[in-house]
Amino acid sequence: MNGQKEMPNVAIIGRPNVGKSALFNRLVGRKIAIVHDQPGITRDRLAAICTRTERPFNVWDTGGIFGAGETELTAQVRHAAEEASRESDLLLFVVDAKEGLSPIDQELARTLRKAHKPIVLVVNKIDNEKHENLAAEFATLGFERSLSISAEHGRGISELLDAIADLLPAMVSAIEKQKSKIENALTIAVVGRPNVGKSSLINGIMRSERAIVSELPGTTRDAIDISYQRNGEQFLFIDTAGIRRRGKHSSSVEVFSVMRAERSIRRAELCVLIADITSGITAQDKRIAGLIQEARKTAIVVLNKWDLIKLAAGRTRPTGGPKRGERQTIKQLVDLTREKLFFLDYAPVLIASARTGENIEKLFGFVAKIQRESRARIGTGILNRLLRTAFAANPPPMKKGRRLKLFYAAQAAGKEDQRLEPPEFVLFVNDPRLLTDQYKRYLEARIRAAQTYTGLPIIFTCRARTESRRAQSFNGRTRSRRAGRPSGGRERRKAERSGDRKSRGRADEIYGPAKPRPTDLP
């Protein structure tokens, strides 16, 4: 179920390119929606919380209705906007003052009146007082409440917020409860190439057409936050735009879309990488997986469109569990995926079909397992014995005549505000620069042999510590009885061999008198 139903909803409705996304960004105080002069940029319904009034509310940015764009998507965009208007408590009908009243505005006004919801006519692009007379033309639409604003410059936004606050129902307790749920939600980013089924997977989970799905690549442009509650646990899914190669971007809009998708990877706690099982793991899939690895994010790999593989093989859905041939095919696909994504081998691989819903429920089983694994810890004593055994079995390689030395290791405590934090191990070594990537992968494999940490990257943090500091910290027999100074045996022996009385006196002054040797005893 969608967890945002308890909070009042405000939908922004209008034809394309009237400034709906600019108003959406202005209300929520962040640049979430892509703003561009090209009509029809927004397609999916974007949702965010506006906290600029005493009573926070959900604000929805919808796609332009009856507008230009791909003919395959026009009906879906219109359907999404109409659904948002039905589910909302207040409608903001946005028009463009500079272009004037159009037949589309008049038709849309008649449609919105049938919803029997409070409506505020928002005349946008009134940038200064000289443009105020442009709003008079829209009085013929017959709406009781009308405000002139400039979403781009912030003019009239305060008056609009006051009008929204007066018209919204009072649901303070529910609002505070919902706000706490969203803040504590597990953030999951769904990423992948264009047209691999990201939005279809979201809709399959929500069991509604929350995101627009089309065979046309690049349907999703904004990163959409979708709240979802399951078995008392709150999730926040981020449906992102398909990430293409930079050389294949057809417009600046796609550049912004990809940038926001990459930003969503850094923002999320868990990344779900969707790949097309019919085309296999491509070079672009590897690049996206590399972004997840560089960001040190928890990950799950989903091979989508399993129904097409079964259809091509002439198989039907089994009633008593997967057949032997299917099990063998699944194992081969998983092994091939792990081979190509070897640098992301900690991520579990799920074969599913977003269209038929097959194995979609298993995604939450993987999430629950990763949550349990993130709470697992390795004791300090066990960890140090494990790593010392690993160093003895396979010593680190020489680097510029030096070799990495491990003095001590411990697992970091982690942050209390993060529910899904990768395990971090702090290594006290002679020189952190001596730890190579290859040897780091070797140590990671030895740690995973003791604790799998499914879906979680293992982070190594190296801290430099010299031999003398190690001796002071871990070998009490080498500590001096005076102010914790070392025994100074090397300096003393050097002074005795040289026969220099002045040097011996300085050593006695710093390190204390030498202990009598057996040959000095009477």
Enumerate the strands of the largest sheet in spatial order, edge to edge or round the barrel: 2-3-1-4-5-6
The name CATH uses for the topology of the largest domain is Rossmann fold
Spatial extent as radius of gyration: 32 Å
What share of the residues does DSSP label as strand, in percent?
15-25%
Distance between the termini: 92 Å
User: Based on helices, strands and strand pairing, what is the structural class?
Assistant: alpha/beta
Q: Main β-sheet: number of strands, strand sense, barrel status?
A: 6 strands, mixed
Chart the SSEs and their pairings.
Blueprint: E1 9-13, H1 20-28, E2 46-50, E3 57-61, H2 71-87, E4 90-96, H3 103-113, E5 119-124, E6 146-148, H4 157-167, H5 172-183, E7 186-192, H6 198-206, E8 224-230, E9 233-239, H7 252-267, E10 270-276, H8 283-294, E11 298-304, H9 306-312, H10 324-340, E12 349-351, H11 362-374, H12 380-393, E13 406-411, E14 424-429, H13 437-450, E15 459-464, H14 467-474, H15 489-498, H16 501-511
Helix pairs in contact: 15-16
Plain-language structure description:
The chain has helices spanning 20-28, 71-87, 103-113, 157-167, 172-183, 198-206, 252-267, 283-294, 306-312, 324-340, 362-374, 380-393, 437-450, 467-474, 489-498, 501-511, and strands spanning 9-13, 46-50, 57-61, 90-96, 119-124, 146-148, 186-192, 224-230, 233-239, 270-276, 298-304, 349-351, 406-411, 424-429, 459-464. It has 522 residues and is of the alpha/beta class. The chain folds into four domains: 9-170, P-loop containing nucleotide triphosphate hydrolases (Rossmann fold), CATH 3.40.50; 185-374, Rossmann fold (3-Layer(aba) Sandwich), CATH 3.40.50.300; 380-470, 2-Layer Sandwich (GMP Synthetase, Chain A, domain 3), CATH 3.30.300; 480-520, no CATH class. The strands form three sheets. The protein has a six-stranded mixed β-sheet, with helices on both faces. A six-stranded mixed β-sheet has the order 8-9-7-10-11-12, sandwiched between helices. A three-stranded mixed β-sheet has the order 13-14-15, covered by helices on one side.
